[in-house]
C-alpha cells in the first residue's frame, strides 16, 4: 500500500496479479510441497519431529473477502481500544490502520496454524513439543523461500481474529492461528518507510 513521507524507498508489494506460476505449479500443485519449502532442499525442523503446522492456502475471492471483513472488524477495535495509545503511536510511522485492502488484492493468502497438540492412532492427545517455536521456524523458512522466488508478502498477526478465522476455514479446535501471509507479485507503485537496521555489534555477541 502506498505511503507518504520523505524517508521512504520504493518497495515490493502484493498486487492484482494472477496466482504466481511458481506457487501454482511448484508448491500448490502438490499438497506435500507446502511443508517442504526451504530455499534449497531441506525441510523445517520441529520438536520430536511432530510437524505441528497446518498451512491453509486461500485463493477463493469470496473467502478472502470474508477474511478481510473479520480482520478489519477486529483491527478497528484493536486500534481504537485494545492496543493503547503507546502502541498506536509506535505504529504511526508505518501509516498503518485497520483497513487491509491487500487481503482482497493479494492473489493468495496463507494462514499458518500451529497445532497445540495432535492425535495418536487410538484417538488420544499427542503432545506437540515446542509447537509455537517449531511453526515460527517453519514460517521463517517460508518467508525466505517466498523472497527467493521473487514474491512478496507482509507478516500479519491478526490480533483477536484467530478463533473466527479458524471457524471460517473449518479448522479443528486444536489449531491456533499464528500468522497470515498475503502473497503475490510486486506492485510498482508501493513505498514503505526507509527504516535503518541495528548494526551488527548490537545484535551479535561473540564469546
Automatic annotation (TrEMBL):
EC numbers listed for it are: 1.21.1.1
GO annotations under biological process?
Answer: thyroid hormone metabolic process; tyrosine metabolic process
One Gene Ontology cellular component term attached to this UniProt record is: plasma membrane
Pfam annotation, one family: Nitroreductase
Q: Where is the Nitroreductase domain?
A: 43-185
Keywords from UniProt, A to Z, are:
Flavoprotein, FMN, Oxidoreductase
Taxonomy, superkingdom: Eukaryota
Name the catalysed reactions. bromide + L-tyrosine + NADP(+) = 3-bromo-L-tyrosine + NADPH; L-tyrosine + chloride + NADP(+) = 3-chloro-L-tyrosine + NADPH; iodide + L-tyrosine + NADP(+) = 3-iodo-L-tyrosine + NADPH; 3-iodo-L-tyrosine + iodide + NADP(+) = 3,5-diiodo-L-tyrosine + NADPH + H(+)
What terms describe the molecular function in GO for this protein? iodotyrosine deiodinase activity
InterPro entries per the UniProt record, alphabetical: Nitroreductase (IPR029479), Nitroreductase-like (IPR000415), Nitroreductase/BluB (IPR050627)
Please give the family membership noted in the entry: Belongs to the nitroreductase family.
The role this protein plays is: Catalyzes the dehalogenation of halotyrosines such as 3-bromo-L-tyrosine, 3-chloro-L-tyrosine, 3-iodo-L-tyrosine and 3,5-diiodo-L-tyrosine. During thyroid hormone biosynthesis, facilitates iodide salvage by catalysing the oxidative NADPH-dependent deiodination of the halogenated by-products of thyroid hormone production, monoiodotyrosine (L-MIT) and diiodotyrosine (L-DIT). The scavanged iodide can then reenter the hormone-producing pathways. Acts more efficiently on 3-iodo-L-tyrosine than 3,5-diiodo-L-tyrosine.
Name of this protein: Iodotyrosine deiodinase 1
Query: Could you tell me which species this protein originates from?
Result: Camelus ferus (Wild bactrian camel)
Q: What is the lineage of its organism?
A: Eukaryota, Metazoa, Chordata, Craniata, Vertebrata
Gene name linked to the record = IYD
Amino acid at each position: 500500500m502506498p505511503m507518504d513521507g520523505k524517508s521512504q524507498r520504493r518497495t515490493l508489494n502484493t498486487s492484482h496479479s494472477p496466482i504466481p506460476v511458481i506457487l501454482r505449479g511448484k508448491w500448490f500443485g502438490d499438497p506435500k510441497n507446502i511443508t517442504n519449502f526451504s530455499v534449497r532442499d531441506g525441510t523445517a525442523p520441529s520438536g520430536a519431529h511432530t510437524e505441528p503446522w497446518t498451512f491453509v492456502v486461500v485463493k477463493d475471492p469470496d473467502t478472502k473477502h470474508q477474511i478481510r471483513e473479520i480482520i478489519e472488524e477486529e483491527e478497528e477495535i484493536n486500534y481504537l481500544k485494545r492496543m493503547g495509545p503507546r502502541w498506536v503511536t509506535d505504529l504511526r510511522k508505518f501509516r498503518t490502520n485497520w483497513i487491509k485492502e491487500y487481503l482482497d488484492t493479494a492473489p493468495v493468502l496463507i494462514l499458518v496454524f500451529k497445532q497445540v497438540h495432535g492425535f495418536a492412532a487410538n484417538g488420544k492427545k499427542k503432545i506437540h513439543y515446542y509447537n509455537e517455536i517449531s511453526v515460527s521456524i517453519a514460517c521463517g523458512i517460508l518467508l525466505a523461500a517466498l523472497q527467493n522466488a521473487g514474491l512478496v508478502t507482509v507478516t500479519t498477526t491478526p490480533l483477536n481474529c484467530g478463533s473466527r478465522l479458524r471457524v471460517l476455514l473449518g479448522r479443528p479446535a486444536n489449531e491456533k492461528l499464528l500468522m497470515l501471509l498475503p502473497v503475490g507479485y510486486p506492485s510498482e507503485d508501493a513505498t514503505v518507510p526507509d527504516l535503518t537496521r541495528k548494526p551488527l555489534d548490537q545484535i551479535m555477541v561473540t564469546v
